[in-house]
Amino acid sequence: MRTKTAAILAGLLVAPNAATAAPDPARLFTEHCAACHGGDRLGAIGPALLPQNLGRLKPGEAVNVILSGRVATQMPAFGDKLTEEDAKALAGWIFAPPERMPDWGVAEIDASRVIHGARLPAAPVHDSRPLNLFCVVETGDHHVTVLDGDRMEPIARFQSRFALHGGIKYSPDGRFAYMASRDGWVSVYDLWGLEMVVETRAGINTRNIAVSKDGKLIAVGNAVPAGVVILNARDLSPVQIIPTDSRVSAVYTAPPRHSFVVALKDTPEVWELPYDTLPLAVRRVPLEAHLDDFFFDQGYRMLMGASRDGRGQVVDLDAGRKVADLALQGMPHLGSGITFDWQGRRLMASPNLKEARITVIDTATWEVVRQIDTLGPGFFLRGHAASPYVWADVFMGPNKDAIHVIDKRGLEIVKTLRPAPGRTAAHVEFTDDGRFALVSVMENDGALIIYDAQTLEEVKRLPMRRPVGKYNVANKIRYEEGTSH
User: Fold this and answer.
1) Within 13 Å and on the Cβ side, how many CA atoms surround 232?
2) Residue 205: phi, psi to the nearest 5?
3) Is the overall model pTM greater than 0.85, yes or no?
4) What residue ranges of the chain are covered by domains with CATH 1.10.760.10?
5) How far apart are CA 167 and CA 169, in angstroms?
């Protein structure tokens, strides 16, 4: 007797009538899906389309995702290109396992390693201030620009791996930049010598990476194969593979705790991996519900998390248990939250991927202090300790060209900028001193627009190829309160 899922899949693959040729799902995938999901279904810009990667998505729901797109992701709607029968054939095909699931262990990681022979000079080969450099990820042509944050001029530009993840990390001294692509490639770039040092493929579908406080280890969070790969930060040799019971949605470093913290997509747990002793041991913290998105207080004791349905929890990592609920609505994006002081209280603010609002929470009581209405759902929120303002994009909604500037003192929008009317504006980042704010125009013929962070006037505009993110070295390595960690 067939299972319910098997019956659904069988139904999805049946042509509507014998007189009409059945859609060819392999051809449709190659034509419409492979560019984002990989020709082998192992993931690229989009996630791997394998049965174990689609655990919470039902076959029938997949048809609607194909035709209508998916909120809070880069998945577009294909309803103008594919018929419903095409979508049914595709859905049935991606829920069927491939002929052979590839292995990706220590041997495969080691074999993939590419050593570029960088010179590793004893001092920077440029005269830019190393701690005020930015790495700008340009996905329009898969490059990274190294930007001098004092002169606002590029000093280098190099080709990246396909589908580079925006969250670039740095070594504690700011010398090395660590990058990860969605298809598992981890790269080390020397910001002194302006050369690629070493690369390795640590997984098939990678979510992000984190760097230990001492700069010796890199943790790679993988959805496929599900687990965390620990690499030597200097040469990317594999140190340890820690399988998980779930796809990993993200891995974070918790510097005061000397540990990595792992977000699991399918299991109601948080994993903590102390890294002072090898091999790393796993500490499991049970939760009431799984969490897709995390935010930490500045001391990294309290973890705030939310699921895609908006359910929020506060977890005391020392105590190993939930201590409060968060009153959240829609789909808060806690991973892009920031903290700042207000009237003697420490607040956390989070954008929302579904609703036109920013939620401001008191981190002592976990109560909502203010809901700030915006022109649409947003993805990124940024600030700086030296700036009186919080900058918020709203590009998940119809007003994709707007950037709100919010006064930290009054908790209200004081100005709405439109850096490039009609074009997507997103992801603000500050210089190390908070004096200037950089905004991305996320188009193939886009730009970085530099604003005076006090007067809110435009200072300079640099052409870029879809700059999806830019990351200041000093802000990252000192875990600046106004940027993501």
Assistant:
1) 11
2) -140, 105
3) no
4) 4-94
5) 6
Task: Count the alpha carbons within 13 Å of 236 in the hemisphere toward its beta carbon.
Answer: 30
Q: How many beta carbons lie within 10 A of that of residue 327, not counting itself?
A: 12
CA angle 114, 118, 119 (to 5 degrees): 160
Rg (CA), the chain: 22
DSSP symbol at 366: -
Measured between alpha carbons, how far is 90 from 84 in angstroms, rounded to an integer? 10
User: Smallest Cα–Cα separation from 66: which of 58, 57, 53, 75?
Assistant: 75
Task: Confirm if 392 and 381 have CB atoms less than 8 A apart.
Answer: yes
CATH topology for 4-94 is: Cytochrome Bc1 Complex; Chain D, domain 2 (1.10.760)
- Identify the helix (H) or strand (E) that includes residue 34: helix 34-37
Backbone angles phi, psi at 64, to 5 degrees: -65, -35
Distances, alpha carbon 308 to alpha carbons 71, 292, 316, in Å: 11, 7, 21
By the 8 A CB rule, do 391 and 405 touch? yes
Q: Which residues of 228-255 are buried (b: 16+ CB within 10 A; e: fewer)?
A: bbbbebbebebbbbbebebbbbbbbbbe
Burial 428-452 (b: 16+ CB within 10 A, else e): bbbbbbbbbbbbbbbbeebbbbbbe
For residues 485 and 479, what is the distance between their CA atoms, to the nearest angstrom? Answer: 6
Q: The domain 335-485 belongs to what CATH superfamily? A: YVTN repeat-like/Quinoprotein amine dehydrogenase (2.130.10.10)
Question: 317 near 257, Cβ under 8 Å?
Answer: yes
Which residue ranges does the chain devote to CATH 2.130.10.10?
Answer: 335-485
Place of tokens 């859609």: 23
pLDDT in tens, the chain (485 residues): 444 444 444 454 444 443 457 888 888 888 899 888 877 786 666 666 877 667 567 878 888 989 898 764 568 899 899 899 988 888 888 888 777 767 799 999 999 999 999 999 999 999 999 999 999 999 888 899 999 999 999 999 999 987 787 689 999 999 999 999 988 899 999 999 999 999 999 998 889 999 999 999 999 999 889 999 999 999 999 999 999 989 898 999 999 999 999 999 889 999 999 999 999 999 999 998 888 778 998 899 999 988 766 678 899 999 999 999 888 888 888 888 999 999 999 999 999 999 999 999 999 999 999 999 999 999 999 999 999 999 999 999 999 999 999 999 999 999 999 999 999 999 999 999 999 999 999 999 999 999 999 999 999 999 999 999 999 999 999 999 998 87
* Token representation of residue 267: 């299991």
